[in-house]
Amino acid sequence: MNFMNLIEGIEGDYIETKESNLIFDVKGVLHPNDRKICFLRFYPHPKGDRIKEGKNYRKIYSLNNRYSLIRTKYPEYLFYSKELDLEVQGVKNRDIKKIYSPRDFLRKLDEKETLSSIEQHSKSLCELFISKGGVSKDLIGITGSSMVGLDKKDSDIDIILYGTETSLYFQDKLRFLLEESNELREYNLEEYRSHYKWRVGGSNISFKDFMKSEKRKLHQGKYENYDFFIRYIQSPKDWNGNYYDYQYKNYGRISLKATILDSKDSIFTPCSYKIKPHKVLDEKLISSKIDLKDILEVNSFRARFCEHAKEGETVLVEGKLEKVNYKNKVEYYRILLTDQILDKMLILN
Q1: Concatenated DSSP letters for 232-248?
Q2: Looking at the structure, do residues 252 and 299 belong to the same domain, yes or no?
Q3: Statement to judge: residues 51 and 94 lie in one domain
Q4: Residue 149 burial by CB count (10 A; 0-12/13-18/19+): exposed, middle or buried?
Q5: Fewer CB atoms near the end CB (10 Å): N or C, the chain?
Q6: Is it the case that residue 236 has pLDDT exceeding 90?
């Protein structure tokens, strides 16, 4: 299977519901047969500051607020997944009115005669990546608020790149594009400070620790006057099975010191790091029955943890410890980073 005939409803796609006209962003690439795992992003509100087809919408940011609103007003979009051992948001296939695709949106911009400023800049950034970055036009798209017609003047440019080899090749090219291009650049110190507030605001992570990871990330920066963000999606051959091949069990929180063994999959969403654990930093947070050497990975569906640490670095990781059972044959543990305030990966060396 290639990306030309992918089933719709993967990371980067948005879903609009039939009855309630809610708009969700899809998380990950593996989903149950009867629904898509996705999280509320925009919802109709009479005082909303975004307008689509004559209806006012509000954007909702924090995960906690998304759960709170869904639980209160739209509980039909909550379900407990026994595979994930977690209550998650999702839309059943029968309730989907429309799936928005980043590649379709880019194609529509090619055909559209008049473009808004964000549409024009998003399209020209894609064209730059195609002409100078060697990306196939079939493997790039534009996601985010502009894709669903709910952008504002200060909206970001959200780019999606598809394919493992394409993404790894382009990531290397991106270094040179940032150096060569007049329109494309990394953030300056003032912009990093503002970035820090919404990326790790409320946590106890210092700006110095934040910058150890953030200042070297290539997938974000400025294009003209717009913030841009690139998300990379692996090829289907690298998805390693389907949703039902995995069973996760929550073992509570853990704080761990570890070395990064492999970070090549850190650019992707979801991102992954292979680790060698050294020491549990809070003995109360882990069962004595768990062998430290069986904790093999750190994973996250949150883009803030992409490109976060490199091979050979020692890190402090705090997150949710899960046992992973793959096809009832392989068992190991991973640390999942999801919580905006509590979860972290800090470089120690």
Answers
A1: EE--GGGS-S-GGGEEE
A2: yes
A3: yes
A4: middle
A5: C
A6: yes
What is the mean predicted confidence (pLDDT) over 211-216? 96
Tokens of 161: 């790149």
Residue 111 has pLDDT above 90, yes or no: yes
For residue 242, what are the contacts with CB-CB under 8 A and spacing of at least 6?
A: 30
Is residue 19 located within the same domain as residue 131?
A: no
Q: Does a structural domain hold residue 46?
A: yes
What pLDDT does 1 receive? 43
Q: Is residue 161 part of a domain?
A: yes
- Whether 9 and 129 map to the same domain: the answer is no
Read off the pLDDT band of 281 (50, 70, 90): confident
Nearest to 335 by CA among 293, 297, 278: 297
Structure tokens at 127: 């064209």
Is residue 239 domain-resident? no
Tokens for 326, please give them: 């793959």
Structure tokens at 55: 């209806």
> What is the pLDDT at residue 312?
98
The residue among 23, 56, 19 whose CA lies nearest residue 39 is 23
Name the 3-class secondary structure at 89: strand
Name every residue whose Cβ is closer than 8 Å to that of residue 71 and which is 6 or more positions away in sequence: 78
Decide: 51 and 44 in contact? Cβ < 8 Å.
Answer: no
The residue behind tokens 């209806």 is 55
Question: Is the pLDDT assigned to residue 115 strictly greater than 80?
Answer: yes
Residues 11, 101: contact at Cβ < 8 Å? no
Closest CA to 26 of 104, 99, 107, 119: 99
Domain boundary among 180, 200, 233: 233
Strand partners, 86: 81
Do the Cβ atoms of 134 and 206 come closer than 8 Å?
no
Measured between alpha carbons, how far is 319 from 340 in angstroms, rounded to an integer? 10
Closest CA to 330 of 239, 245, 237: 245
Mean pLDDT, residues 179-189 taken together: 93
For 148-270, list the strands marked E by DSSP. Answer: 157-162, 184-185, 220-223, 226-233, 246-262
Copy the structure tokens of residue 143.
């996601």
Query: How many domains does the chain fold into?
Result: 3
